Every structure is written in structure tokens, then in C-alpha cells.
Request: fold
Amino acid sequence: MQETYLGSLGNYRKGSIEIIKGKPGHYAMSNVFEVASHAAPYEKVVVGKNLKYVIETVRAEGVSPWFSASHDEFAVVLDGEIDVHFIKPSDGPLVNADTEGSVRIEGEPAGQPMGYVRLRRGHQALLPAGTAYRFEARQTGVLLVQTILGSCSVEKWAEICIQ
Amino acid sequence: MDQSAGFQSVTASDPDKTNGYRTFTLGDFEFSRDAYFVTVKWPSKGESRSHQMHADDFLRAMMRDVAWGFFYGWVNFDEVIGTRNHYGRVDMYAGSYNASFKDAGVDYTQQFETPLIMATFKAILRDWVNEGFDPFAAPEETGSAFGIKHGDNIGAIERTRIATKRMPGLVGDSPLRDDLPVNRQFADIGQDEPEIHAKPGFEHELHAFSLFKYLSRSDVTWNPSVTSVCKQSLFCPTTEEFVLPVFHGNDRVEWFLQLSDQIIWDVGDKDTGEPRARITMNAGDIAAMPADIRHKGYSQKRSMLLVWENATPDLPKRYESGELPPYPVPL
Reply:
């Protein structure tokens, strides 16, 4: 059996585009490990964008700020070991219902601790609408976040894509 | 012709006395098969035109069209025949998206109510898939599609997936795959689950599962399943081996994120099929499939692919009208 090849921050092989007609930029192709390797910890770099919806790649290193969103978000760990801690806000929603995307919360929000999930490579967690959450990397790694373009999203396509 | 293929609205012949297969009629199209080939006929310029495919290729393509509910946009069975989804109605076409057929004026398109074309395709699969052949499986994992009619494989072609509302494994949502075996090519994928340490009262609010374990137990290839729902944003990962049995034409932008191993994509013009690019994607690579292309993938080892779809209902019209550019990012 051939070994299954899973990339990581320290071991990835970026692919390529052979153009016959058109431009490489039409495919907005990047590599999430490469992007995360050049990103600041918990910088939410957009690597996929479909109108308002995005996939962000995140370098998980140390402890993140607290975030919240008015809608469900999802995190998938592609490298490292990462805890996600949750708080149920006690003073109502931290984010308006019409605000989309992750919103950074200053300080630790007031509320009831809900517990945490410990994720390793290939694990996926629900980041439920209305909760506050924070990442703590036990081992530096890479997260994918399925969300909506928001105030924390960082777009730098020219820097990350094959052209 | 009779109505005996098991679906009231399906038009099918009696079984052929030589090879045992029925011939099916859908509007002006005729579908027949023999031991090796499927033949599709349609009218053009007062004549009957025909096209042949290997039976295994045809059945793999038709199986995806049925399983995907005609999917988003175009499902090209090969360079000549295929379907276009209008979400409630479906076009069956021959040569309509092939530059040579189109230029010669020998192409043909006919539109059907979705239930009729779906019933016809399902009846074809029930009749033409023989015992031992699984059109969802990789070639190494299944028997032959060829030969005169011998038995059937209803269990394989009628696999059902339960739709995911938020995420598999949540109470009331789609199930995980713990009861399925790990695929032979993912024997090295860890089967550990996330640790969930919920405080009392929050046991049903915190949720996590192993996506890689879930994918390692997929018993089909090239058949996406939804694993997370963020409004109209759908993560639809799938496991891929050998070749995508269709050339999928996009009616919207979709994205691929290679989770493991490698897939090479041939990309062509959506309308003419002319080649545009060849993209090699390794683990961690993410790329858009623009709204004006068709694509076909090749995976020499079973791999994990995250297909990301935007299910916003009005997108096909917005792209077709030019309101939205076919490319997702201005570069």
C-alpha cells in the first residue's frame, strides 16, 4: 500500500498549473501550509472565497483572542494539536444577528464556561453560533475555518496565489 | 415497447433475446447496450445519429448523475453526451457542448421534467448493472461491467446518503461511519476521535468528530457528502481513486482543497471542451474551478478531496447573465 501523504507546516509540496489558455490567476491556487507558515499566529488568511463565503487558513500557535459569530462556523485541524475553549455569553449575543464572519472579542467575555474540545490532525469541530471560542495550540499547527468574510478576514491573494 | 421496467413513466423494451438487456427511450433519445458498449441515438437533420461508450464508463457516469441529483450544472458523460441541470428540469444533450458536433449542426438537446429523466436513468442502472459490478467503486475493488446480462447489483446502485443539516454526528443529524470498514488505501489513517470535555449541561452543544476517520471509511469514490453547513456554504469532502467518471461543467464557482495525496485535473472550456489547463494539486493545495470551465480529475492513489460548494439558489442565472465574473478573485 502506498503511504497516505498528508501535508504539514514543516512538510508540504505545492502543486502547479500548466496553462494552455487563460491565466494561472483564474484558479486562485495556493497551499494552506505555505500560507500558514508565513502568517502571524491566528491571522485569518482567506484562501478560498465564494462570494461572501470563505475558507480561512490559520497558523495556530500559542493562545488566540476570543472570537464569536452570529452563525455556525467550523474548524478543521490539518496539523498540530489544538484545544478550543467555549464560553456561553451571559449578557446576550456578543455579535449582532446581521453581522457575518468571525468577530474578535476584546478580553475574556463574561459567561459560563462550556468546556473544550481537543483536536488533532483530521479532526473537525463545530464553532456554534452565539458562543465565544478561543484556540490554544498545544502543538503549533494549521486550522481551516469555514466561515463568512468578516472584520478579521485577511485577503492577500497576490501574495499567496500562483500567477 | 412496454412499461415493465419498474417505473410507471419509463419507456423500455422487452429484454433483448441475445444479450438480455432492455432498450430505453427518453423523449427522442434511445439508449441500448450490448456486452461491451452502450449506444445512444438521437435525431438530427432527418437522420438518426449515434454515439458509443464503453459500458463501464457509461454506467459510472450515469451512477454519479443519479447520485448527485444531476449536480450543479453540466455532467458530461464524455465529450459528446451529458446532462445539464436546470433545478426542476434537466437537459439531455448529444454534441451540444462539443465544438465539432455544434459546428456541423448534428447536436441535439431535449429537456425533461427531473422525475422522468431520473426514473429513466435509475431504470437503466437497475437493468444494465450486472451482479458483481459496483459503479461507485474503484476498478481494483469491483468486478466487470461487461458481458451479457447476468444478475443485478441493486444494493450498490441504491446506496442512500442522509442529508446533513449542520454536521454529522450531532443529535438528529446524519450518522458517522463507524460501522463501515476502513478502506484498504487508508489503513494508515489514524482512527482516534477528538476529546470532548463538555461542562454539565453543554454535552449537546459542543461537538467534534474525526473527518479523516470518516473519509477513510467511505465505501464510494467521486461522490461528495456534506460534512458542515455554514448557511449556503457546504463542505462536501469525498474520496477519489482512478478517474472522475464525468467531465463536470460548472454553473458556479466551486473550490477544491486537497486533503491528502494528489489529484491532477484536466480543465477545458465549458462550452466547447477545448483544453485550458492542467492542474496538479498536492495535499494542502486549494484552487478554484471557475464558472466557465469543465474539469476531470485523476487520482492514482485513493485520496481525500474537500469539495466546497456555494448552494445559493440564484447563482446559475447570475453567472450566465454576466452579473458575476467566472473567476472568484481578481488576479
Observations:
- The longest helix of chain A spans residues 32-37.
- Chain A is about 5% helix and 45% strand.
